[in-house]
Amino acid sequence: METEIDVLVLGGAGVDSIVYVPELPLPFADSHMVPAIDMRAGQTGDFVAMGVQALGLRTHHIDLIGDDHEGDLVRALHRERGIPLTEVLQRGGTKRAVNLVGPDGRRLSLYDNSRSREADRLPAATVEALASVSRHAHVSLTYPCAFTLPTLRASGVTVSTDLHDWDGSEPYHEAFAHEADLVFLSATALTDPERTMRRIAARGRAEAVIATAGAEGAHLLVDGELSHVPAVTPPAPVVDSNGAGDAFASGYLFGRLTGEPPSRCAHYGAIAGAYACTVPATRTDVITRDQLLTLAAESQGGPLTGHART
């Protein structure tokens, strides 16, 4: 069947309240004076959807969203960005979090886990129909996306996921880690990133595992070979790390779906992630295709071309 969607993003739609704090960890006190607290739509799935859309990939997002003000913000974000959104009612309300951001751009996220219900599901028939016309599916870690993995696998679509700051042992993450063809994660909570990456590859079906390590770059495991992906100098001062991992995943997926080798895909990811660190969390700016290819050409010393299907 002819594809209509390059990247189907599942889950991860929600709203964040952004609080810039004087330092992290925040010292105990009765109160702290902070700049204006801003609430805006955009969690991990939203940022991946915006990221790949801005890079020229045909994108569709599906998730559970509440019938509430926060849900209206999510819907408005997708309308403004021209990203098709299939929404399923989340009776517990739209996902939300509070992100504390320090002066150096580091983030502490307080995630409200009260919104989901045990019975929440993305309808299998809807997921199947969307997957059948998609080239690739990116599955967010949010509940109940784990239940979509068998449907996606049966459809034949390739799958990626982001385990975020997994410690390598929490059972919830394992279904995602072992069912995806492409696995992203942060090295933040890992004492031995290589060991965790090799275990993911050995126990699952991942053809590539990528562990991001902030200013230290990233680790890339492909066909049993581990390599280092150098960090990219951000094009402007670093102000915020919110969305950097989602941007990395978006850049990598752009490379993968335009036929680039894993090393080039990872370089694209590093460029996109570095760019994201220059954008305040109160905004939802993402790197465009032209910006990414220009920065990639400058860093590689020659023209690069990524040709996304349109």
In short:
By secondary structure, this protein is of the alpha/beta class. The protein is 31% helix and 23% strand.
Descriptors:
9 helices, nine-stranded mixed β-sheet, disordered C terminus, 310 residues
Overview of this protein structure:
- With 310 residues, the chain is of the alpha/beta class.
- The chain has nine helices and 13 strands.
- The chain has a nine-stranded mixed β-sheet, sandwiched between helices.
- Helix 1 (44-54) packs across helix 7 (244-257), helix 7 packs antiparallel against helix 8 (262-276) and helix 8 (262-276) crosses helix 9 (289-300).
- The longest helix has 15 residues, at 262-276.
- The chain is globular.
- 47% of the residues are buried.
- The model is unreliable at 301-310 (pLDDT under 50).
Furnish the topology, listing elements before pairings.
Elements lengths: L4 E6 L3 E7 L17 E4 L2 H11 L4 E7 L3 H13 L3 E5 L5 E7 L5 E5 L12 H8 L2 E6 L9 H7 L2 E5 L11 H6 L2 E5 L6 H11 L4 E5 L5 E5 L2 E5 L14 H14 L4 H15 L12 H12 L10
Parallel strand pairs: 1-4, 1-8, 2-6, 4-5, 8-9, 9-10, 10-11
Antiparallel strand pairs: 2-3, 6-7, 11-12, 12-13
> What is the H-and-E element order?
EEEHEHEEEHEHEHEHEEEHHH
Question: Uncertain segments of ≥5 residues (pLDDT<50)?
Answer: 301-310
Largest sheet: 9 strands, mixed
Ends apart, CA distance between termini: 16 Å
Question: How are the strands of the largest sheet arranged?
Answer: 5-4-1-8-9-10-11-12-13
Helix content: 25-40%
Mean pLDDT: 93
From the spread of the alpha carbons, the general shape counts as globular
Number of helices: 9
Strand portion: 15-25%
Counting helices, strands and paired strands, the structural category is alpha/beta
Count of DSSP E strands?
Answer: 13
Report the C-alpha radius of gyration, rounded.
Answer: 18 Å
